[in-house]
Amino acid sequence: QLKDRLYKCHFIKQSKEVCGYPLSIFFIVVNEFCERFSYYGMRAVLVLYFKYFLRWDDDLATSIYHTFVALCYLTPILGAIVADSWLGKFKTIIYLSIVYAIGQVAMAVSAIHDITDTDRDGTPNNMTFHVVLSMVGLFLIALGTGGIKPCVAAFGGDQFGDHQERQRRTFFSVFYLCINGGSLLSTIITPILRAQNCGIYSKQKCYSLAFGVPAALMVVALVVFIVGSGMYYKAKPEGNIMGDVCKCIGFAISNRYKHRSKQYPSREHWMDWAEDKYDKLLIAQIKMVLKVLFLYIPLPMFWTLFDQKGSRWTLQATTMDGNFGAIVIQPDQMQTVNPILILTLVPIMDSVIYPLIKKCGLNFTPLKRMTVGMFLAALAFVCAAVVQIEIDVSRKHLTYFNLTQFLKIFPFLIIIRATFFLQSGQLSCAFSRDFGFGSSYTFFIPSTLSLGSNCQESITGAEDIKPNSVHMALQVPQYFFITAGEVMFSVTGLEFSYSQAPSNMKAVLQAGWLLTVAIGNFIVLIVAEVAKLPKQWTEYVLFASLLLCVCIIFSIMAYFYTYIDPTEIEAKFRRNVGDDDDDKNDKQRKLEMEMMKRDLDRSDDEHYKGKQTKM
Ligand SMILES: C[C@H](N)C(=O)N[C@@H](CC(=O)O)C(=O)O
Known about the structure:
The chain has 615 residues and is mainly alpha-helical. Among the domains are: 15-239, MFS general substrate transporter like domains (Growth Hormone, Chain: A, Up-down Bundle); 407-465, no CATH class. The chain has helices spanning 2-14, 24-53, 58-110, 127-158, 165-195, 207-227, 241-258, 280-296, 300-306, 312-317, 337-359, 366-394, 455-458, 476-500, 506-531, 536-559, 566-581, 587-614, and strands at residues 17-18, 21-22, 197-198, 204-205, 407-409, 417-424, 427-434, 440-444, 460-465. The strands form 4 sheets. Strands 5-8-9 form a 3-stranded antiparallel β-sheet. A two-stranded antiparallel ribbon has the order 1-2. Strands 3-4 form a two-stranded antiparallel sheet. A hairpin with a 2-residue loop joins strand 6 and strand 7. The chain starts with a helix and ends with a helix. Residues 576-615 are annotated as: Disordered.
């Protein structure tokens, strides 16, 4: 470890800097931007791809969407283990990014309807091919995006020396902005691409382009990351800390069980039963981690609600009117409200709201913020329920026909006037109609129709589904509350987890945090399946009520939590060990310590000088 720290010190001192930041982090930041563009861009149109391309119903589309998201947040554990114990972060990012890019390409190919459209009628003839290919693609994407997730931010953090604490903090803020910048751009762009018509034999909604551009961005992300290769500090794998933690916990439990008889004196904490075999410092660190993990138990419920933006809320938007006058918003584009609000709310919260609360003499601790965040998410679902009731009322009087007998047209986006061509051999005729957002029509084509004559008059139509009348702007309040909740819950939660984690287990807690997201997405499936509520608004109310209950439980747990300073606790343990080990110190170790101290002092001096010059 000493040698590694010395090497890092030398490496960082010799590496190129721009405005006090290592040049290497620019490649990492650009890589993150492109990767998040790729991920969120694909995710934005995913539920509509299931519904309109693969022809799945709302429930199946929602279930598969959440299974995919859950998988994306389960694989970080795998990525962290591979990186820490085997490949190191750099190689893990490279290899898994390749898997990720292949997955994105598979998705893009799966959305080309012409591949199996043998009769050239615009619909794929072998749906199994498209389903299987897209499922394989999604699996590879989940493996890639989840696997690299705990590595990229930590790899960026590794590029800074101990004397660059301020720069490292700025890097993490910029990193979060890049995530949301990439997400914002892609959720604007991919729905536009999806709404285009493309195809070789027949023109259909262009899901292949909507998945193809994210695939290209993932390749760009990989190339950018590789270009920076020579500039990175690549820490060696530290060993499987997660494995050590599990083994130590396992030993504590089995040892406790072996000594269950009353003749053995009880110990203060059940983890103390591991002392017979494991280092006291490791046990203390595990205790810190377990304390935080216990607090995590209610957290998945927040994600259960949060991640329905991409599924239920997007499907809700398809039944709303997206005509904003100058622009027409696609249902999946409504998701951009989230990153837009994140980019505005994070600075407002940090520089206005939190300082103001502090000025009022209130101690708004991280756990209190997270509780408020949960409450806001529940409020968002109450808003979603109100909007749903409004939509249901507006669509109550509609009559549905059996549409299969006739030509059925779903103008999915607003079409002011569309023209259709009927063709038979050399003869053709055209007719035009006006359509509203989300409406559906059946046209009756008389068998006596002679092509070449005026179709406009001969073809009659019936409106099966009226145009959507509830405006998409009504979704803004629910997006506002869920995003304000995200800022208070997610941003604070990440910071809390980092500050309460022991130095060598920050990645373990990061993986634990991401696991709460995965479990949250599985809860969507379970609740939706078990409850099977006939009305969508009642499902929204159910989710809001569940989160409210969980919020109360969490606030009680938070009340009893005592904040700790892991560095101080670790230092105390190290001091104790240091006292015991004094005799064992040999010349070599002293020499190494001396060298490292001199080295660190020198970098501190340079940092101090740098500060003075700036002042
Ligand atoms: C775009 C979201 N607002 C966001 O910031 N997402 C983060 C955190 C997460 O959900 O995992 C990200 O994509 O890393």
